[in-house]
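Pipeline run #58 for the internal structure catalog. This entry was flagged by the ingest filter as a single-chain record with no existing model, so it goes straight to prediction. Upstream metadata was stripped on purpose; only the residue string is passed forward. Reviewer on rotation: M.T. Logging verbosity set to normal.
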Amino acid sequence: MKKAYVGGQAVIEGVMMRGPEYVATAVREAGGEIVVKKDRVLPLGAKYPILSKPLLRGMVALYESLVIGMRSLMFSAQVAGEEDEKLDDKEIYITMAVSTVFAAVLFLAIPTYAAKFIPGTGSNRVLLNLAEGILRLLIFLAYLYGISRTKDIQRVFEYHGAEHKTIYCYEKNLPLTVENVRPQSRLHPRCGTNFLLMVVIVSIFVFAFLGWPSLWERFLSRIILMPVVAGLAYEWIRLAARSDNSLVQALVKPGLWLQNITTRPPDDSQIEVAIAAMNAAKPQEEYVRG
């Protein structure tokens, strides 16, 4: 028997928690009340068992996280008073599409184009792929640091810290109270920050097997293979979350260090919101076979 996983995401003035059966988004509205939206979810892996197999489940998890995360983010914006009109499904998917294009340009197109300008790479395919990977990593780190300097994002990162602390409290079987949540660590191995960092690192090795074709071939191959990269990164995160091996834990450290940027210490009111989301999302049967 193992503890049923509950994951989460920080949103605007709130936290989304996702359990095996329910997704709950708790948001503190302008008047101070906590509004909770709870929805039943049926993972694609439960509907189509083949999608729960290794590698495939990582691709599916990435897709589901993007869709559910975007819906929760839009809900939080409405409740927190930052959106006057409810966005329909079409607008949500357009927003996701624009974000995807931006990410593809910033993290795929720019690094693979600029790698050839790194001194010493010449026409060496190994060095060019390595340079591209290093550039992608530097852009990723610079992006995180840059957005962390903005006041609004700092507020979201505080809720991110509250999310992690609450998940730790749940995983330790402690009563979900502010007093129990407050002392927990805000650095968690199953964090999306760890996942994104692993995507960047795994991509270096996966793309290295493709050689160094034309710019468009490189760009398209990276887009096509990104689900494979995500699947491998997902399996690594799952392993790290379950393993006590010293080597595995040492390799997880960079992702935990990075969370010092993407999480901040929350106040008690933010912890209360995270607890409300957890109470709504956690399963009745907290242990599952496996």
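catalog note: The chain has a mean pLDDT of 87.
catalog note: The beta strands are 2-3, 7-11, 14-18, 22-28, 34-40, 287-288.
status: ready for reviewer M.T.
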